[in-house]
Amino acid sequence: MNIRMLQAGEQPPMDLLLLADPSQKLVEQYLSRGQCFIGESENGVIVGVYVLLPTRPETVELVNVAVDEGCQGKGFGKQLVNHALEQARLTGYTTIEIGTGNSSVSQLALYQKCGFRITGVDRDFFIRHYEEEIVENGIQVVDMIRLSQDL
Prior knowledge:
Blueprint: E1 2-5, H1 14-20, H2 24-33, E2 35-40, E3 46-56, E4 59-67, H3 76-91, E5 95-101, H4 105-113, E6 117-122, H5 125-129, E7 135-136, E8 139-140, E9 144-150
Parallel strand pairs: 4-5
Antiparallel strand pairs: 1-2, 2-3, 3-4, 5-9, 6-9, 7-8
């Protein structure tokens, strides 16, 4: 997979971004403030995406990691997360953060395998910020699990 920054004027892969975050309004808000990176297959098809969002001095948040459903389980998510870590380091950040839903079992495992540590729980995050109920793995997504890593 080739990973590159989304070019000025290029449309972000909204279908993929909405896989990781069902709120188009929130996705558009952080896209306007962050840097979007896309992962392309060997034949140029976009199969993954992530967004880096500066939050505080020396801290950046990885706010959206998504892989096309037909391409999941092939290591693309890990490639995207590792690329984000390297981009954050190269840009001079010293801390990277990420948040995911309480029911996002595979994502929690992935992020920890990539060196993130759980730092807290933002209780009722998905109740406060999303109009519609989100269910994943048969569990209502209510709390955001926060993780971070020193770079």
